[in-house]
Specification:
Structural class: alpha+beta
Largest sheet: 8 strands, antiparallel
Strand content: 5-15%
Helix content: 10-25%
Number of helices: 13
Radius of gyration: 22 Å
Order of helices and strands: HHHHHEEEEEHEEEEEEEHHHHHHH
Distance between the termini: 51 Å
Shape: globular
Oligomer: single chain
Length: 504
Amino acid sequence: MKTRVYLIFLISFGLFACKNVSIEEINARKQVNPEPNIPLECYTDTGIVKKGKAEANPCYVCHTKANTPYVNELEDMGLTLVYSFPEDIVERGNPWLNAVNPDLAIGNIPEPYTGERTGWRAFRWKPFPGFFPTNGRIDSTFIRLPENFRKKEGITDWEIYKKNLAILECAIKGKVPGEICQGTEVGDITVPTHYEGDAKNIPVITFQYPPGTEFAHPVYYLDPLNTLSFKSLRLREMRYMKKIAYAPVREGEEEEESTSFWDNGMVFNRSGFWLMVGFIEDEKGNLRPQSREEMKFCIGCHGGVGGTVDGTYTFWRKIPGILGWKDQDYNLSDTSIKDYSYYEISCDKISYLQVGEVIKKALQTHCNKYGYPPGEYLLYFALTKGGDHFRSNAEILSRISTDPTKISILERENIITNRSFINFLNPDGTVKASLFIPSEKRAYEINKQYYRVVKAQAFVFGRDLFGKPFGLSQGGNSIEKLKGLNYTGVFESALWVRLRTLLR
């Protein structure tokens, strides 16, 4: 019932999102961040600034060997080794002041709800490493395929739609036509060359969504009193994407465009194969279109890094089969998120992974000792020395490990070498909800800080923040001054060496 309420609200939001808003006024506001497509996470200190030596590498989860061969992802592993900021950013310093030092910063989409089924479906996914509600954001995601995927001979057929969604799920997770895909909502299937029903002329392309695919992505305030999902009824943001066309195969490296399209809150993603729309709260709490600068914030992550699949982060990480077709609840009501690693692979498939050779070798070494690869979160926590990109969430450390000093891969004993330290997994291998969800105190601190940003309409300074500032000058690990900063120190430190020799 709750998911249906969310869906009704989601599909209806276009009726009031633009109420009493002058988009010209929004867009005319002075630009304070010339490169909002470079997200806050890229300003993390690996330890090279604060301590003179890298002690963490959170960069690899986004900047890696591309997951797919298409232009929506880039081969950008080199960005784990260097800080590569444009000159105008270097001169200004870290522009995301709401996160690092907020006192310096703050002094025609979906149709109206008609009571009929619209094709939107909520799904659950395994959250991307570090992007957990305890680190400031909680959300839902809905997907919808075009009308011809929901019909057969012109008549709506929901069983055909389920089958097409199952085919898409298999394809996005790397299955190729002719391959058996097990455990879908409609059972085991052989991936066809084309979708079914009235979409029979649309080819199945592995790692790509068909043109016309839509995503709706509401972002909520944290609500500790909601024990079902921890989500408030009030939205912080509504994000929307629509696939325009199949993307071609990537040919070498590509430079990011110097200009970006913007029209009444709409932009194209970096590769140009997704149309994106974003709404955010005005000072009274009504959703309004985002300005050109605010929308460019969305471009950096969707379609410009190696760690996505067709420019997205969620559907290819969907909980398999029918268990994944419900609203995301972060294991609060249905414990089914497991710490599988890289497309739920087995040890015999590691050589086929689209990841760097160092990580691939570490996975194989773990397989040789335990018979299965280490979990994705396990590897992330060990390489990052915590549960977020900035090692700024002290609350999560005891939830990761029974001994918070035994997390980093640089420790002689850690959560990889000694599994008895692991505290974030249930006995059956599922992830505890406590890993994802903040304490009540932390949740309200995050909400309070974010509401300050809303009242000041200061989203250009960032919308990702914790309960307190975490710039280097505030005792955190987010870089503020960028001049003279070149290497992350990851290559020079013991991080890679330790990973290479792990468990030998």
